[in-house]
Design brief:
Chain B: It comes from Psychroserpens algicola. Chain B: One of its GO terms (molecular function) is ATP binding. The complex is a heterodimer. By secondary structure, chain A is an all-alpha fold. Chain A contains 22 helices and no strands. Chain B is globular. The longest helix of chain B has 18 residues. Chain B contains eight helices and ten strands. By secondary structure, chain B is an alpha/beta fold. The chains are: A mainly alpha, B alpha/beta. Chains A and B meet through α12, α16 and α22 of A and β6 and α2 of B.
Chain lengths: 493, 235
């Protein structure tokens, strides 16, 4: 088993996966982002030296850059945690073949070294180093300093996998990294431990005395060995075969009975949300959404900008609606075939989802009442936005769901998990948030704030009045695309 | 009970199923056998209106299945694990199915209690989610769920696969009992010739999407089927 066999396998896995053709839109988006970052890093690398020289003529740009290295490392770590994943390889079929386990692990780890995230810094630091050379800095020192950057980048790379492997098993998995990075930042900010100086001195040390490069290299080797041991211990079948069996805490949810004939579906939906990793972690997004207003409202710059009120209002009261709603009916994709062969009324199925979304809007509105502290206008805007969410957005998102063709694996985490996200979900986000913000913003700007509120609320009320008709229409859409959905959901991504 | 007329299903011009006429009377235990790709699951999927026929149709109790949904109240099925809801416990799943089929808790409990020996103490009261059960136990739960709500037509795809010998024998008893005593039409597919000949009054052999044998089960049927399948293998 040689390296080329591994590469060959992965190549086929990538191009032959069922979702390859379907998710091409998403891939283009990713490539676009990658290009964007590459270009901006390149521009930064080119402009850094002359820019700093100009802004701080009496300081050495090289020293300033070293002073910022701590923040760069912190930022890189956070970004990687959310975006970079350890390269996955389906090892199960390999275990019984004559391949050494060590080889598989080495391969996976080495491959991670070729991640996009490790090349990205080069775009900035290569031109910067060249600039340094042009400006007469000693060649050997700059070379080793640059080498130091590469080694540190790889250290972050492997450190990230260790952090991830510790946090991936837990709920709220992003808390540890945020606490870790936050406390480092705080210690530094309040001058308790000056990491800024520490890191800066370390890089200067390598620059002045290239022999010190062995220290980061030793750390790198250490981290590699830790990663190696961790991965190898996971390479036995019983750890992946024996899935964790969780005890059930069943509750009868009698209170849903008052919703009448949609009760069984509501119970199912609530269990769906609470018992599966992915929808459950989108529940935690609710807290984030609720705090979203704090980004804007305390800022006097936005105090008189009704467009922002409308936008934040829609976002805060509708975050669950958008998060949960955009994956109707993909949440049920795992057993969609069964539902379709059962004696169910599609209308009840959709009404249950609708009721959940409405309840969430009302709850989010109530929770957002404290924002009245920043002015009654905000409360009024949130109220109008809530009505709009109930009367318009809920239907729009369910209608969008009838175009949903992507299966969801319920056990995946949510943050930056784009499984089940198709081009439709990206497009549907625009009318959901921007349209009401625009309607409100324009009427409020040209006529008056009150008329803006009225416009949003009236649209919402119209939707509520047309409830029966709209639900019928949407139900028909779902029925029309039944076979296509069954077919799409039964395919493994 | 079930009439199939001029039914074909084609994907991209390749016909995978072509049945000119097939009638299954009420209360018959009907077995479908054939090699991989013969069209067994395709036929069952058409019967449940999970895929659309290219031509023709299937009528279930005088209801055309791809035109009306009125066949659903008296038809139930277990095709594969995708019929289970992984994050429910077996009990919750049974009650959910029961509610969809208009049964209250007591009705469901009544049905389940008849199958306690079938479950072998590994399904009920385990405080486990369906996704955490073994393949065989998942299958047991799915099969029993298909019996809830007094269906008149029951469709089971490969019910014997993955089951342990004891359960296989019990399941055979259950299926026979349903067809003989309760007048339920049971459709079963299997790769195991011995099991189908044991259970089914009638066996249809599919090959490349077409019916090539239609047999009343008798003492010689198993021999005939074995001869047929070993014969086709040699060609």
């Amino acid at each position: 088993m040689r390296l080329k066999h591994f590469l060959n396998l992965e190549w086929k896995q990538f191009f032959r996966s069922a979702s390859f053709n379907k998710s091409i839109g998403l891939k283009i988006l990713m490539i676009f982002f990658a290009l964007y970052f590459m270009v901006s890093f390149l521009a930064m690398g080119l402009a850094l030296y002359p820019g700093l020289k100009k802004a701080f003529p009496d300081k050495d740009p090289f020293l300033i850059v070293n002073g910022f290295m701590f923040f760069y490392i912190l930022g890189d770590m956070l970004m990687r945690f959310f975006l970079q994943k350890l390269p996955v390889m389906s090892v199960k079929p390999l275990l019984t073949l004559p391949v050494k386990r060590n080889k598989v692990v080495h391969y996976v780890l080495r491959k991670s070294g070729f991640s996009f995230f490790n090349f990205l810094p080069l775009f900035a630091f290569v031109p910067f180093s060249i600039m340094l050379l042009f400006n007469g800095y000693p060649k050997l020192s700059v070379l080793f300093w640059f080498l130091g950057i590469i080694v540190v980048t790889l250290i972050i790379n492997f450190l990230n996998f260790i952090i991830e492997s510790f946090s991936s098993e837990r709920e709220l998995s992003y808390l540890p990294i945020i606490v870790f990075a936050g406390s480092l930042f705080a210690l530094n900010h309040f001058n308790i431990v000056s990491f800024t100086n520490l890191v800066s001195n370390a890089f200067m040390g390598i620059y002045n005395n290239p022999i010190y490069i062995v220290i980061p290299i030793a750390i790198l080797i250490g981290l590699y060995i830790i990663n190696f041991k961790m991965l190898k211990s996971k390479l036995y079948l019983d750890s992946s075969l024996k899935s964790k069996v969780s005890e059930v805490n069943a509750s009868s949810m009698e209170w849903t009975k008052r919703f009448g004939d949609i009760a069984p579906f509501m119970q199912l939906d609530l269990k769906l949300i609470w018992r599966n990793k992915r929808p459950r972690s989108s529940m935690f997004l609710l807290i984030l959404g609720l705090l979203y207003g704090l980004v804007f409202y305390p800022n006097p710059q936005f105090a008189d900008s009704p467009m922002i009120f409308g936008f934040v209002g829609i976002f805060v009261t509708g975050i669950f609606l958008i998060n949960f709603g955009q994956f109707i009916p993909a949440w049920d994709s795992g057993y969609y075939k069964m539902l379709m062969s059962q004696n169910i009324k599609y209308e009840q199925y959709l009404k249950s989802k609708y009721t959940l979304m409405i309840l969430s809007v009302i709850i989010m509105f109530v929770l957002s009442i404290p924002y009245v502290y920043f002015g009654w206008k905000i409360l009024a805007a949130h109220f109008a936005a809530a009505i709009y969410n109930i009367g318009v957005n809920s239907y729009v998102i369910m209608y969008g769901g009838s175009f949903n063709r992507k299966k969801i694996d319920l056990n995946q985490r949510a943050a930056f998990n784009y499984q089940g996200t198709g081009a439709v979900q990206w497009i549907i986000g625009i009318p959901l948030m921007l349209l009401p913000a625009a309607i409100f913003g324009i009427t409020a700007y040209f006529i008056s704030f009150e008329i803006g509120l009225l416009a949003l609320a009236l649209l919402g009320i119209t939707g509520i009045l047309l409830h029966q008709k709209l639900i019928k229409f949407i139900t028909q859409k779902y029925l029309d695309s039944k076979y296509k959905m069954i077919d799409a959901f039964s395919q493994d991504s | 009970m079930i009439h199939t007329k001029d039914l074909t299903k084609a994907y991209n011009g390749t016909t995978v199923l072509k049945i000119d006429e097939l009638n299954i009377p009420k209360g018959q235990s009907f077995g479908l056998v054939g090699n991989n790709g013969a069209g067994k699951t395709t036929y069952f999927s058409l019967l449940l209106d999970l895929i659309k026929p290219s031509t023709g149709n299937i009528t279930n109790n005088a209801i055309v299945v791809d035109e009306s949904e009125d066949w659903k109240p008296f038809t139930s099925a277990f095709i594969d694990e995708s019929f289970l809801i992984g994050y429910l416990t077996p009990e919750e799943y049974f009650y959910f199915i029961g509610e969809l089929r208009g049964q209250n808790k007591a009705d469901v409990d009544n049905v389940i209690s008849q199958f306690e020996d079938f479950f072998h103490g590994e399904i009920l009261g385990q405080k486990k989610y369906l996704r955490d059960l073994s393949k065989g136990n998942q299958k047991k739960a799915g099969i029993v769920a298909a019996l809830i709500g007094n269906p008149e037509v029951i469709i089971l795809d490969e019910p014997f696969a993955n089951l342990d010998p004891t359960t296989q024998i019990r399941l055979k008893g259950i299926i026979k009992d349903l067809a003989e005593k309760k007048g339920v039409t049971v459709l079963v597919s299997s790769h195991d010739l011995l099991h189908v000949t044991d259970v089914c009054e009638r066996i249809v052999v599919l090959e490349k999407g077409e019916v090539i044998k239609d047999l009343e089960t008798n003492a010689a049927t198993l021999k005939e089927l074995e001869a047929h399948f070993s014969g086709t293998e040699m060609v």
